[in-house]
Amino acid sequence: MDMKEFKLNYYEKLYLARHFEDELMKLFADNKVVGWIHSNKGHEVIGVSLALAMKSHDYIVPHHRDRPAYLAKGLSAKSLLAEIMGKTTGCCGGIGGELHIMDVETRIYGPTGVLGSNLPIALGIAYANKLAGNDHVVVCNFGEGGSNRGSFHEVLNMAALWSLPIVFVCENNKFVEFTPMQKHMNIEDVARRASGYDIEGIIADAFNPMETYETFKYAIEKARRGDGPTLVEAKTYRLDGHYEGDPMKYRDEEEKKYWLERDPIIGFKASLLNESIANESELESLEASVHQVLKEAVEFALKSEPLKVSDTFKNVYA
């Protein structure tokens, strides 16, 4: 894949992730979604960069704002949307909902109900891969708040001791629910915590698509070579509230305006035009194809059968 093809593919996945959220918010407003929605706007560069830097046999053990990674790694918009809407055609039969997305085929081993509790699961998968002697890498995502939990420190210690093929990705969006980072941490950079376990800590600007991709590519290939884990702190900004409908009274409007003006998707599109990677008509065609994919996904999910109460017992063994 040459650079033009790569960058257009990258932009298409960014655009898909952003507009998937737009469609999801419309469905939520129309009471078509069961439960709450936690927007990932601002996180798109992280998920897309990770998926493009990974191989198909690599695993991702994500957290709850990683829909961009799901879509970029190959989970279909139809399957993902149907799952969030509690339909039987979803990737987990509608049982998982928004926060518990899992898909064995694309090696997405979904988030858990407690933030930070996905870290030990990722550690176990990485340990199994090392014992098997394969070249599979595990990527584990969590927020900066998750790095305050005991599981984070236990897992980094064990991963370092055993030199496991794992990349830890802290998606630092500056807020833990409604609490700004500076109110729950004395350090500015989560990446500094890597030094306590004698592993490499790197900071990536997740508003810079190519820098973020190159950082993840480096860390993943390092793990694949057997050179141990890396902690990458991808600094971003949560463009929306903690949940859909969050009034965000805890956030300064000028601060939000500053980050909105740096929207990485708008910036990346401008760079494609400025560098003559693509022209307006090429990008319009690409965007139209994404909207068609999303239109079909919405129609598919709306027509699919909803989960019945009896379906919740299908996978219960005792």
TrEMBL record:
<feature type="domain" description="Dehydrogenase E1 component">
    <location>
        <begin position="13"/>
        <end position="306"/>
    </location>
</feature>
<protein>
    <submittedName>
        <fullName>Thiamine pyrophosphate-dependent dehydrogenase E1 component subunit alpha</fullName>
    </submittedName>
</protein>
<dbReference type="InterPro" id="IPR029061">
    <property type="entry name" value="THDP-binding"/>
</dbReference>
<dbReference type="Pfam" id="PF00676">
    <property type="entry name" value="E1_dh"/>
</dbReference>
<dbReference type="InterPro" id="IPR001017">
    <property type="entry name" value="DH_E1"/>
</dbReference>
<keyword id="KW-0560">Oxidoreductase</keyword>
<keyword id="KW-0786">Thiamine pyrophosphate</keyword>
<dbReference type="InterPro" id="IPR050642">
    <property type="entry name" value="PDH_E1_Alpha_Subunit"/>
</dbReference>
